[in-house]
Amino acid sequence: MYIHPNKSYIMYKKCYQGKKLGDNYFEMHLWEEDGGHQILPYKNVVYQECTEEEHTHKGLNLSLIHI
Asked: What's the whole-model pTM score?
């Protein structure tokens, strides 16, 4: 795992979807730059863009979304 001394992110070399664990729930395999391997659960969440009054979250580009 590579952690930049001045930033708080981890860089991965490869990622792929493994077994389906349930409805919209998957096993994700992550390989790190140093050769490490992790298996993490991932839930694919459905969202819908909405108005400011209806939003429950903000998207990556700060768009208003409702889950």
From this structure: 0.52
